[in-house]
């Protein structure tokens, strides 16, 4: 028994402050754990991951949900948008993450072109992400018009996270990266969320939506919600890890908070490495056989 667990001595009148109730830590986060978090008023964290090392680190840090996002297109592969990434590439990224992470729920994005043509195509694509990639669920961008697709996936035994508000795959149709749901269009975001919940989505992610609209969505649906640029009323929050850790340079979106400066740390390490190679001080005797 540790000192923190020792009872107060008899006759001292000492008392220990009431501690917050400890929530049991499941071996693997499942969709029902997120639902339980909403029911109990608890919040959870979600980050993107695309490789084994970040997956391991975020797992060890206690991140509940890892999103293998199509954002790998413009954060790993060098594309300007998310549109070019293929299903084959998403399967590879998902496999890297699922092979390394033990506890988080792993959600894989359905990339552009992999689900819009038909519900059959959506099921086929999702099966690959689960069967070959090792994902536990898929995320699908779009509003009420994709309710039938969500139903088909759920019937096939595939958990679906809905994604409403700003949907990056539709950036050309939406006129660029613009906040969705302002003014009279806020009702549409709520209706989309309700339709996708009714179709069987286990969670609703909202991107770049006014905080007051996101709060109304969270109150309207029974499933947990996740926000990115959607205020603080959602059950969970998600960020692209390169934004969160300060790896990506340039101007950051308003909703991003950097929790580290990984870019400068990595640049410093690379600079010192190059200097030691050029000077001949690396490798030294201790690094040689």
Automatic annotation (TrEMBL):
Region named Disordered: 1-23
Enzyme's top EC category: transferase
Keyword entries, A-Z: Cytoplasm, Magnesium, Metal-binding, Methyltransferase, Pantothenate biosynthesis, Transferase
Pathway: Cofactor biosynthesis; (R)-pantothenate biosynthesis; (R)-pantoate from 3-methyl-2-oxobutanoate: step 1/2
Alphabetized SUPFAM superfamilies for the sequence: Phosphoenolpyruvate/pyruvate domain (SSF51621)
UniProt cofactor note: Binds 1 Mg(2+) ion per subunit.
Superkingdom per UniProt: Bacteria
Binding residues for Mg(2+): 70, 109, 141
Main subcellular location: cytoplasm
Coiled coil (residue ranges): none
InterPro entries for the chain: Pantoate_hydroxy_MeTrfase, Pyrv/PenolPyrv_kinase-like_dom, Pyrv_kinase-like_dom_sf
A biological-process GO annotation: methylation
A Pfam family the protein falls into: Pantoate_transf
Reactions catalysed according to its record: (6R)-5,10-methylene-5,6,7,8-tetrahydrofolate + 3-methyl-2-oxobutanoate + H2O = 2-dehydropantoate + (6S)-5,6,7,8-tetrahydrofolate
Catalytic site positions: 207 (proton acceptor)
Gene Ontology CC, one term: cytoplasm
HAMAP family in alphabetical order: PanB (MF_00156)
Protein task: Catalyzes the reversible reaction in which hydroxymethyl group from 5,10-methylenetetrahydrofolate is transferred onto alpha-ketoisovalerate to form ketopantoate.
Family of the protein in this entry: Belongs to the PanB family.
Listed name of the protein: 3-methyl-2-oxobutanoate hydroxymethyltransferase
Species per Swiss-Prot/TrEMBL record: Arthrobacter crusticola
């Amino acid at each position: 028994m540790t000192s923190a667990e020792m009872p107060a001595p008899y006759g001292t009148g000492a008392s220990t402050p009431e501690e917050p109730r400890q929530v049991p830590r499941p071996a693997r986060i499942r969709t029902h754990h997120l639902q339980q978090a909403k029911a109990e008023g608890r919040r959870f964290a979600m980050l993107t991951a695309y490789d084994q090392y970040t997956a391991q680190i975020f797992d060890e840090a206690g991140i509940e949900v890892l999103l293998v996002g199509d954002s790998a297109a413009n954060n790993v592969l060098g594309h300007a948008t998310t549109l070019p990434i293929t299903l084959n590439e998403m399967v590879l990224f998902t496999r890297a993450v699922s092979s390394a992470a033990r506890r988080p729920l792993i959600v894989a994005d359905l990339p552009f072109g992999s689900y819009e043509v038909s519900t059959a195509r959506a099921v086929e694509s999702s099966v690959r992400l689960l069967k070959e990639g090792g994902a536990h669920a898929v995320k699908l961008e779009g509003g009420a018009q994709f309710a039938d697709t969500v139903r088909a996936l759920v019937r096939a035994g595939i958990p679906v996270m809905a994604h409403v508000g700003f949907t990056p795959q539709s950036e050309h149709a939406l006129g660029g990266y613009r906040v969705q749901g302002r003014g009279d269009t806020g009702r549409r975001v709520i209706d989309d969320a309700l339709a996708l919940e009714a179709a069987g989505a286990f969670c609703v992610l909202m991107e770049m939506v006014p905080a007051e609209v996101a709060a109304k969505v969270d109150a309207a649906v029974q499933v947990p919600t996740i926000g990115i640029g959607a205020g603080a009323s959602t059950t969970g929050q998600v960020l692209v890890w390169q934004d969160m850790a300060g790896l990506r340079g340039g101007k950051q979106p308003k909703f991003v908070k950097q929790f580290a400066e990984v870019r400068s740390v990595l640049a410093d390490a690379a600079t010192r490495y190059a200097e030691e190679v050029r000077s001949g001080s690396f490798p030294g005797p201790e690094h040689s056989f």
